[in-house]
Write a structure and sequence with these properties.
By secondary structure, the protein is mainly beta. It is built from no helices and 27 strands. It has one domain: Neuraminidase (6 Propeller).
Length: 343
Amino acid sequence: MSKLKRLNRVVITNGYQTNAYCPCLARLQNGDLIVTFRTGGREGVLKLVRSEDKGLTWGDPVSIAEQPGRALDMGLGLAQLSTGTILQAYVNGKGEAYLVKSTDNGYTWAAPIKLGPEGLPPGDWRYINFTYGNIREYDGKVFLPIQGYVKGQHLLRDGFLISRDGGETWEQFMTVAYGLGDEPDMIRLPSGRLLVVSRDWQSLRGHGESPILWTYSDDEGKTWAEPTSTFCHLGTMYGHSPCLFLTEGGTLICAYRYVGELGQGLCGVSFNYGSDNGSTWSLENHIWVGPGKPARVLSCGYPSIVYVDDERILCIYQMSWAQRTTTWLGVGEIEGVFFEEEE
């Protein structure tokens, strides 16, 4: 298993209030890097920043979608497909999911397309809760994550919309789990296994110290194992907003918001190294992203990872630091850390 060597940190954009981010990172076919994120409150704006020098410097944010008066939400959900089309998914806090597209490397964007509830197979969705997770493309099929509620059911349904025409239509929904997970991310391993990790929103330990769940399918998503807690040699992994990444050297990484010491007011962004089938994880090469160790922050996490060139990996995330004025306020930024893989 390869190790990652930390190189340097970069600030992508800053000056926003707490929880104004959920950044998504993509490397485009022309070599540019783009990061999308949401603004806070009910501004209802998704923005994009661009780097043309492999992440060393970043331009000014520009708007790519707006729904004024709505608290837009997103998490990962940004991808450039093999056709060159860029997709970005989000929800508007009204139980509706949307997709915005660009065909010119993110310089212009078409009007948002509503995906739900009536546009979602099998057609009985009553509320879309989130679109968290990477959009993945495997063997000509595009997988778009959706979490929500179906009419007549009270348990959250996690799964993926599937398109076979580059995101033009979504003809199938693949259910992964009911009532247990939220913020799921999926990746296909070299063995062909589909691995999903997710945050256990319904955890008895509450909103904070949620165990990370994992499940898998060895038959291309037809059936899924019962979700269970992830484990490392220290016990259960606790965290939010997991993101899966497979290096060129074959190392499986789960980056996430670490909350194992949330009771002490400590929070950080963490890397854990996984086995080749996703069943066990290691903290032996545990990396703190961001401040280098758990820090007193109001909000952090939502990592997103890509290769910026043939050697360097960039992991971005949101970080909101607590500042004392008349009340505790969060002054945050989107930042990132560069790594390189070494044997």
